[in-house]
Structures are given as C-alpha cells and as structure tokens.
Amino acid sequence: MHTRTLAELGDALAAGEMSSEELTRHFLTRIEALDPRLNAFITVTGEAALEAARAADRERAAGRAGPLTGLPIAHKDIFCTDGFRTSCGSRMLDNFISPYDATVVRRLKSAGMVMLGKTNMDEFAMGSSNETSFYGPVRNPWDLDKVPGGSSGGSAAAVAARLTPAATGTDTGGSIRQPAALTGTTGLKPTYGRVSRYGMIAFASSLDQAGTITASACDAALLLEAMAGHDPRDSTSVDAPVERYADGLDRSLEGFRVGVVEEFFDEGLYPASAAAIETALDVLRSLGASVKRVSLPNLALSVPAYYVVAPAECSSNLSRFDGIRFGYRAENPRDLADLYKRSRGEGFGAEVKRRIMTGTYVLSAGYYDAYYLKAQRVRQLIAEDFRAAFAEVDLIAGPTAPTPAFDIGAKTDDPVTMYLNDIYTIGVNLAGLPGVSVPCGFADDLPVGLQLIANHFEEGRLLNVAHMFQQETEWHLRMPGGEFA
Amino acid sequence: MKWEIVIGLEIHAQLKTASKIFSGASTAFGAEPNTQACLVDLGYPGVLPVLNREAVNMAIRFGVATHSEIAERSVFARKNYFYPDLPKGYQISQYELPVVHDGWIDVVLDDGERKRVGITRAHLEEDAGKSLHEDFHGLSGIDLNRAGTPLLEIVSEPDLRSAREAVAYMKLIHQLVRYLDICDGNMQEGSLRCDANISVRPVGRHEFGTRAEIKNLNSFRFIERAINYEAERQIDILESGGSVVQETRLYDSGKDETRPMRSKEEANDYRYFPDPDLLPLMIDAAVVETARAELPELPWAKRARFSEQYGLADYDAGVLTASRAVAAYYESVASGVQDPKLAANWVMGDLAGALNKAGADVEDSPVDADALAGLLARIEDGTISGKIAKEVFEAMWAGHGSADEVIGDRGLRQITDTSAIMEVIGQVLADNPGQLEQFRAGKDKLFGFFVGQVMKATGGKANPAQVNDLLRKALSE
C-alpha cells in the first residue's frame, strides 16, 4: 500500500479498493514501527487522523470526495495546527499548542486530507542536516548514520521511508530541495508568494516559502493546486490564478531550452553526483529538450548575502519568543531582564542563537549599510543574473546539493562548511524563483537530486519537466530497502 | 544673555478606524483588558500583518489638508526593542519613507499674529499595549487592547519659539484632526498626545542647542508647563557653565518638573529595517486627488469665511469654528435670525456658558439651533427684551418648551402698549413724591431710579426704550 504514490492512492480510494481509515491505519502502523529508527516525527496525531479518515470516508460515501479526500499527509512542525503542539523543532515552543491552523494546513484539511502528525525539523528551520532540532537528529532511511538534510529533514525522511505518502515543508535557502535530494524524494519550492505564509512560523520572511515533499512530481502538482493561491491574511501572497498543474504534466519537451549553470559545476561538486546530473541532462535531451550553458556570475555571492539577510530577518522574527505570552519561560526570574535573558538563553539552541546574534549585528547602527543594504544589492544582482539567463532558456537545471548525504555529526562543528551545502539552492530563494529537486541517480549508494529552476510562477512548466523526466526514469520509485521496504 | 527657545513637536494621533492597523480587532476604548487583542495583536507565532487601508486614507486626508506631499511609495519598517507590552518585539512603523512629508500649516496666535509651522513628516505606525503597574502585588499586568491601534505620528519642524506657540500649534492640530474626522482628539484617553523636543540658544545664534525630548504630554497645560520648565532648566545649566545632555525626559505634572527617563547606557539601537511581511505602500495620484476633492472646509478657511460672511471679528470667528459641530450650530442659528452678531453673542455667551456648566458638547445641547434661533427671533421682533430672553433660555434649557411656549406660559411678552406703560409711570411718580421733587430740583441722576421702578413694577417686561421715552416725557410735564 505504502509503495504507491499519492496519486495512485487517490485512485485506489476512488475505486473503493480501500478506505481512508484503512490507509491511515496502515501509515500510522508504519510510523509506530519504524519512526523510532528515524525520529522523523515530533508529534503523531493518530486518533485525530483516524477520526479525519472516517469523516473522509463518509464524505466519499456521500459523493462529495475531491482528488485529495482521505489521503494522508504529514506537516512540518513549522505549520501551526489548531489544537496540536507546534514546536518548530525548539524547546522554546515545546509547550506551544497552536490555537489556529496555518493557511496551508487549513486548505489541505478542507481538501479532505488526513494529518498523520508533525515532522521533525532543524530548530526554527535553521540548519541543513536536521541536527539542530531540540528533538534530536533525524536519520536518513537510506543509511541511518547519515543526515537526511534539512531543515525539512523529518518530512523528507518520512516520505522516503513511506511513513507518509506526502509531507509539507518549507524552503528558505534550500530546506525542501536539499533534503529531498538527500533522501531520493521530490521536493518542490514554489515561487515566493505562490503559497500563503500565514501560520508558518517565520524564519526569514522575505525568503520563506511553503512547498511539498512527495514521491513524484505528479503528487506535488496535486498538492500545490490545493495549497496555492492568494491569501488575504498574507500581504506577500500573490493574487495570480492557480493553474491546474496536474493537467499540464504530459506536455512535450520538444523544442524546450534547458540551461545548465556553469558555476554549479565547480570543484565543490562531488564527482559521482556530477556524473548523475550529466546523465539526467541526457534524459532531458532524449525528451526533445536542447541543453545549453548559461552563467550566473554572481552566484558565489549568494551564500554570504543569504547569511546576512536571513539572520537579520530572523533576529527580528524571533523577538516575539520572550517568555511572556507563550512558549518557554525560565523559572523564577529575578526581574524583566532576567526573564528575557534566561527564557531565550535556555529556550533557543546554539544555531538559532548564532543567527540571532549575526542578524542583530548586521542590523545595528553603523553596520546596516555595510551588511544589510549591501546584501540586498547583491540580491538584486543575483535576480538580474537569473533574469538574463531566462531570456535565453526556459528552465535551468543542475545539482541540488554538492554531495550526497553526509555523516551525522560530520559538519556540526563547522557552520561555514554546513552553510556551503546550500550553495546551489540559496540563489533561487534570493530571486524568489520556483525550484524542484527530483531523484536522478545514486552516488555511493545514496540518492542524488537534480534541481530544476523555472521563472516566476512557472510551476506548471517546472512540474511538467519533472514529470516527463520521471516518466523516463525510475529513480523516484526506488525505496530504501531492509526494514523500510 | 537673551535666550531663544526652539521647539519641535511629535504628535501621536490615534486614528479613528473601526479596526486595528494590521488586524481586524476592534479599537474601541475602555474594554476589559486583553479582550480586544487577536492573535495578530498578540504576536502569535506564524501570524502576519495586513494593512488597514482606512488608516492610509486618513493619513492622506491629513497630508492634503496640511499642504504636504503624499509619497507615491512609502515603506513600513520594524523598530526592534524588547518590552512586555510590545508583543512582537518590534513596532511596525515608517522610518526612511513616510507616507506624508514636507507640509506646513499657519497657526494664528492669541494676539492675531500668524506663524507658519513646517510639517517634516507624518507616518503611520502601530501603538503598543499598556503595562499596568498597580493592583498586581509587586508584579506588572499587560493589557494589549491598545496594541495595534493605528497612530499617525506628526513631526513638526523645529519652528516653534515658545510654549505659547507650541500650545497654539497643538491646538490647531487637535482642531484639524477632528475636522478631518480622523481622530477623536480625546487627550485624557491618550488619543492625542505629544513629545516635545526642546533646546535653547542665545538669541541671534544660528545653530541649534542640544535638545531634550519630553515624552508623553497629554494636555495643553502640561505641554506649556513642561516646555517652560525644561527651557528654564537648560538655560540655568548653560548660564552656570554646564552643557545640556541629549536625553529623553519625563514631565511629572505632580511636581511640575522634568526628569531623565533612561540613561544613555540603556539607549536602544532600534535596528530599523523594512518589514518583509508588508509590501511597500503604493498610493495612486488619483486617490490623493479624490481625497483633496473630498476635504471638508478646513478650520482656517471656515474662520475666514465666518468673518467675511457674518461680519464677525476674527477672534469670534475663531471661537465659532473651534469644531465643526459648533460651526454648524452657529450657521444654523445665524440662518434663522437677521443679525448674525446677535447669534454669535448667544452661541459664544449663554449657550457656551450653559454647555460648559453642564460639561456637555454642542451636539448634546438641550436647546438645539432651531430653538435658539426661535428665541433670538423674539428679541429681534421686540416680543421680549434681551434680559427676559436669558430667563426664557434658562427655561428652554431646563426642558420647558420652545421660546414661544415659555413666553406664552409665563406671560413674558414685552409690554409695548403706550397707555399701559403710562399708567405704570403715573403710579410710580405718585408713589415717589420725594424723589420727584428732587429730580425737578435738578437731581438728574434720579432718572435711572424711575426707570428701575417702572421696570420693577412691570416685572421687567416693559419695553426699555419706550419706558425711557415716555418717562422723559412725563417728567418734563
């Protein structure tokens, strides 16, 4: 049952092969049996899931089922879920029961989806390996000693091991695409503004975007259709019509122009990963696409620019966690200053503190121009680079991550090495573009991801290419063996 | 040495929107603590601000009324600092690019002198909540009802040169925001309050002195006193060879003094940066033009028109245009009588006095404009004298009916019948032979005595002019 894609499970439900309750119970059983090995879930909402599944079955019996009715999903624990803990992977919110649903959660709920639980993540989405979580690291089902990537590592590991057929994620600098690449799943980060950020706990507001981790591009299309669209509660969500993404997946790639970014194939790219990418480009050629080189000359500046902008915004966004109204509060504070200092000092982990301090520094008087304003200018340059590239090609392709999954603990002592893991993904966030990572082979028996990047609001095209690629390949159908089979 | 005081005001006007600037919660004053704060106001994880366009429209109205530029593009920024009544740890305000900038208004001082005051900028921002330090046994309470209430912060140029000028400017802004219907102007509830930046310099010097900022002045009287105290304090320091420290101070009305609020070491670095949750605020020229076209008649224009149209002294025109309600009341009365000055005297005199005594606004006056016009018409047509009219007015105020009803019920109609008055005069002369003799002997002053006696005998109802004439005639016989 669990080896099927979301779309296939939807067909099975529609055909009456099984009920949503049976399906839900099956995944809950897998979570119970296998999650202790992965630590992909922070909270499992079994009873509520079964109740929702039964309600979905009743809807179906009444002839009111949509394409997602009764299908299970897991939400990254960054999305607020009414009545359930929403921890954001932090001790700070370990006791926080959200009084409302994020727009993404609400939309998928009203499409009839069944929430299985909340997935583990790097604390406040700050990390590329899922090792900064207050709830401990997540393990990669392809090799339990390896990281699953981050920050949506719980969602990626859970989908890779089929503890859920699909999961939501968020991507600020690569947090959907990189873990998707490292776990052999399909990770979609839509255009900034395509999906509402309301109820998604903010890390870096101008970069954060909600997306999906699934077994296929087709599944991503189904979910995006339900998630996307203007939200009057989010001023940065864009009021543009939502395509019927699933309807356009089979369009031919004949005459399609794919650009390969020269700067992506640098010395940091692991050779076996590079080889997998080259093979993937051949597949695109065989589908009728032409492949040409393009240049993003300012790409090297994306990591430093990102590590100014994102911490600056996070330092302000995380100020609300002050021990006053919700979340962690230090015991017996002496006075107000002590309450603030100890609540935040004890509630936040090391990586979050590092970024708050960095962000506070770059915004402070006398440094603002040299750091924050300069980073914003770099951001413009990078957006210009992409604009110029999209004048020549319809789509950009390249690696998602420089290496396959690395060992747990390997990079925790060296933040800069860790940050460089996002070198290929960060530019997309800085420019607000949509990107997807699809499995395209293996290096050292670990999955490799092919990153596809489209122009703003061209998710339809992006998913079309990803889907056509997946029609020609079967990397996305590979599953970790052993106990996860 | 002669010193010159230099003052600039930062006025916070709470805008009269029904809901908050970035959320749908109500802005009504006086509710139970924390009952008018939604998740957005509470700064809950994941919530986002959405700008209330009505607040923007109000800012535009203020801008066009004050000859200001309306920015086609302005930006909301975050002002970061920690305080328990600031839920998000930052206040959303406008910093580098405010919505309104570079305007001016002319203030008329008490002596009739006109003073132009520059308006540097007016920007939109959200108010913080309130910390409550009483009744919590050593702890502090937080009320977030006010958090997110829209404010327009109006920053003047340092153009004001005395406490008197500052108060006159503040009064004009107070009047203007009420004319524009963008703020209720209730200073006691904090709807309108100001910070004053004060410095002094030797007369003739061009450079400004070091300034102190006096926070949260919420009455005209406090503004005047705080400025005067602070200027004197600074002059004393400078004259004794010291130097003024740039700092934020608080005015203590109980002690009538200012004192430092926080020391320099605690000064905040607010780390302003554009709020990524809000798009830049774009305003179409067409929206500005519509706002301009829909402006009500402004206080200074109304004042000039009153002088012109009703032949009133500028000062009287100023009093009668203090608020739109008073002006509308006056115009309604004036339209029902022949002499607009008579209407002015009554509105500014007996009516204002009665309202003042009752602590009521003109909108709540038990004697409405038509009723007052009805009373004044009876003065004009000679039915009653001005003196009797006061008695009639009091009865009308107390709810005893219209002017005509009171006059009729109480028999207050003026006596104009010559023979009736002559009869009384004859009686008065007969009753006072001694005085009559003295008068005839040349004691002219006694004429007034006889007038008084006649009026007394008629209960004040005899027409005074007629009494004068007839009495003179009778005495000369």
- What is CATH's topology name of the domain at 6-252 in chain A? Amidase signature (AS) enzymes
Cα separation of the termini of chain B: 74 Å
Percent helix of chain A: 25-40%
Based on Cα principal axes, name the global outline of chain A: globular
Average pLDDT number of chain B: 93
Q: What is the name of the CATH architecture of the domain at 6-252 in chain A?
A: Alpha-Beta Complex
Shape of chain B: elongated
Please identify the structural class of chain A as seen in this structure: alpha/beta
Strand-and-helix sequence of chain A, N→C?
Answer: HHEHEHEHEHEEHEHEHHHHEHHEEH
The poorly predicted ranges of chain A are none
Q: Largest chain interface and its two residue counts?
A: A-B, 45 and 28 residues
- Widest sheet, order of strands of chain A: 4-6-5-10-11-9-7-8
* SS strand fraction of chain A: 5-15%
Domain count of chain B = 3
Radius of gyration of chain B: 30 Å
Low-confidence stretches of chain B: none
Total helical segments of chain A: 15
The total strand number of chain A stands at 11
Can you describe this structure in just a few lines?
By secondary structure, chain A is an alpha/beta fold. Chain A has helices spanning about 5-15, 20-40, 45-60, 105-110, 155-160, 175-185, 215-225, 270-285, 300-315, 335-345, 350-365, 370-390, 415-420, 425-430, 460-470, and strands spanning about 40-45, 70-75, 115-120, 165-170, 185-190, 210-215, 255-260, 290-295, 395-400, 435-445, 445-455. Chain A has a domain at about 5-250: Alpha-Beta Complex (Amidase signature (AS) enzymes).
Structural topology:
The complex is a heterodimer of chains A (485) and B (477).
Chain A: H1 6-14, H2 20-38, E1 41-44, H3 46-61, E2 72-76, H4 103-110, E3 114-119, H5 153-160, E4 166-170, H6 177-183, E5 186-189, E6 210-214, H7 217-227, E7 257-261, H8 271-286, E8 290-294, H9 302-317, H10 336-347, H11 350-363, H12 369-392, E9 395-399, H13 415-419, H14 426-431, E10 435-443, E11 446-453, H15 459-472
Parallel strand pairs in A: 2-3, 7-8, 7-9
Antiparallel strand pairs in A: 1-3, 4-6, 5-6, 5-10, 9-11, 10-11
Helix pairs in contact in A: 2-3, 5-6, 7-15, 9-11, 9-12
Chain B: E1 3-14, H1 53-65, E2 69-70, E3 73-74, E4 76-80, E5 90-94, E6 100-108, E7 114-126, E8 130-132, E9 141-143, E10 150-156, H2 163-179, E11 192-202, E12 212-217, H3 220-239, E13 247-252, E14 257-260, E15 273-274, E16 281-282, H4 285-293, H5 299-310, H6 314-320, H7 324-334, H8 340-358, H9 369-380, H10 386-397, H11 403-410, H12 418-431, H13 433-440, H14 446-457, H15 464-475
Parallel strand pairs in B: 12-13
Antiparallel strand pairs in B: 1-10, 1-11, 2-6, 3-16, 4-5, 4-15, 6-7, 7-10, 8-9, 11-12, 13-14
